Amino acid sequence: MFPCSRPIVTGPTGLYWISRPIRFTLSKKRSIYIVEPDSSHSRPQQVRRASDVSDSFYPMSVDQTSPVKFLNYTPVPLAFGTSGLRGLVKDITDLEAYINVKGALRYLLSIADMAPSSKVVLAGDLRPSTDRIMRACMQAIFDCGCSVENAGKIPTPALVLRAMSNGGAGVMVSGSHIPFDRNGIKINKSIGEILKSDEPGILREVERVRDQEYSRTAATSAFNADGMLKQAPNLPLLDRRAEEAYIRRYTESFTDNGLSGLRVLIYQHSAVGRDILGRLL
User: Fold this and answer.
1) How many C-beta atoms surround the C-beta of residue 232 within 10 A?
2) 45 within 8 A of 4, measured Cβ to Cβ
3) Hey, which residues are catalytic here?
4) Residue scoring higher pLDDT (33 or 236)
5) What is the pTM of this model?
6) In 10 A of CB 278, how many CB atoms?
7) CA distances from 277 to 78, 208, 248, 272 (A)
8) Mean pLDDT on 206-218
């Protein structure tokens, strides 16, 4: 909780103190929230939508244009969830995916978790939006001076196993169990998952990249007004070594014919590991 003596609001890029009438830039579907301070404890006490508060109480106006000169929309930053970054597909533009992956990899480079010019394993799930986001992630990997191993559509543990075997990072585009109108990006270190203790360092690097990209013009940016790459790279040829190593991890850990005589029902649905599971059994 943030100590405060004046009301604050959440804007496009964070929290803002209100000491005078101010202007925010938000998309039509986003809301401004005002936090009422508790004068006795100097802590935010009550959250109300700005639309419920009259201008005479908190005078402000809302500008419906983008804070980034070359964009025709207001970017919505991705946020860390239980596992990785999550967001609505409409908010995970190529630009937003690029900013977050490039920032995360810069952080890993800064702590010497991955070597410069190393190979990053890239994979995704079966969501309709995944291939596009993977291409944006690949551009971020390239712009960090690294190369890409396209592991295809495999479960996150298969990606992590391969990345750790390589002694490098991995980038997984997956929303796990959430609906198809959402997606996510997971980054792993050479020694395993990103931890909560890594998040502050990653966020600092992400903001540096964000500032750099937002300062560009329509002519100098690699992204168009919709936040999509002007020239998206094609994914490299599929490399099945991550998938095969994942399968061997199970087949070599259990005895042959361990399920002999049993009938096993597999409910595959949309799980990215549905075909691998059939091979394993």
Assistant:
1) 16
2) no
3) 176
4) 236
5) 0.76
6) 11
7) 31, 41, 12, 10
8) 96
